[in-house]
Amino acid sequence: MDGGGFWSNLDALVASSRIVVDRPRGSRHGHPAVAYPYDYGYLAGTISGDGEGVDVWIGSGGGTAVTAVVCTVDRSKRDVELKLLLGCSAAECEAILAFHNSGDRGVLVVRDRPGAVTAPGVPPAGSGRIPGPGGSMGEFVRAIAAADLPPGSCAEVRVKDKAVALYNVGGAFYASSNTCVHRGGPLGQGMLEGAVVMCPWHAWTFDVTTGRSTVNPELGIATFEVKVEAGQVLVKVD
Ligand code: FES
User: What's 139-237's CATH class?
Assistant: First the structure.
């Protein structure tokens, strides 16, 4: 058993919940007061072992993918809990474990196999940059018939050997790289809500009009110019 269902269930729970950050990074808590190393909060409308919402930590990687969990046992309160770590790098996971681990109360369980998790949630160097749609020397190439991409839908196509994701946002067409900067998920197979596409693999979200991550604007996907002529959607690629 690889636990894939466990992680994808957690992803779905997070994706369908509102995240409330009630203890932002740097705020202090307890006696003596300890500063929270990262944003900390809970999933509204969920229930954890203490009867409150499920706790979440928000790392620098952006998105809502659960990259690890910290399990804690508090014998004095007779309480066992699971903390979800979203978009946390390996170093952030360790810092969060250390935060919870006074008295050896916590263990860290990282998603995936060792070697694949040196920096969970962080895209490969350079891949998160956002080449904008302007300034490209490419040419417009037919991608799809406009009628085949109704409002609110997205699709993946190949344009001059590039995998491109196309989106119809209320009648306006947009195009981006089909490859999610998290771990390469096919964005054209994702879910489009308004102008935001959710990657089908781990639920990272991007504004398709800008390419930027909705969680961490420093991350994003490449976007391409689009125009419609004679009922055809044309995409400008290099
Ligand atoms: S969110 Fe992980 S691959 Fe897209």
Answer: mainly beta
**Domain boundaries of the chain, sorted by first residue:** 4-110, 139-237
Q: How far apart (Å, rounded) are the C-alpha atoms in residues 216 and 202?
A: 15
Type of residue found at 76: S
Q: Residues lining ligand 1, judged by CB closer than 6 Å?
A: 63, 65, 180, 182-185, 199, 201-204
CA distance 182 to 120: 9
Q: Distance between CA 60 and CA 86 in Å, rounded?
A: 9
Of ligand 1's listed atoms, the one at least distance from the Cα of 202 is 1
Per-residue pLDDT of 175-226, as tens digits, reads 999 998 887 889 999 999 999 999 888 888 899 999 998 888 778 899 999 9
pTM, two decimals, is 0.49
Output the CA 169–ligand 1 centroid distance in Å. Answer: 21
Give the Cα separation of 182 and 200 in Å (integer): 11
State how beta strands 79-86 and 54-58 pair: parallel
Q: Which residues of 77-109 are buried (b: 16+ CB within 10 A; e: fewer)?
A: eeeebebbbbbbbbebbeebbebbeeeebbebe
* Cα 51 to ligand 1 centre (Å): 31
Whether the Cβ atoms of residue 47 and residue 54 lie closer than 8 Å to each other = yes
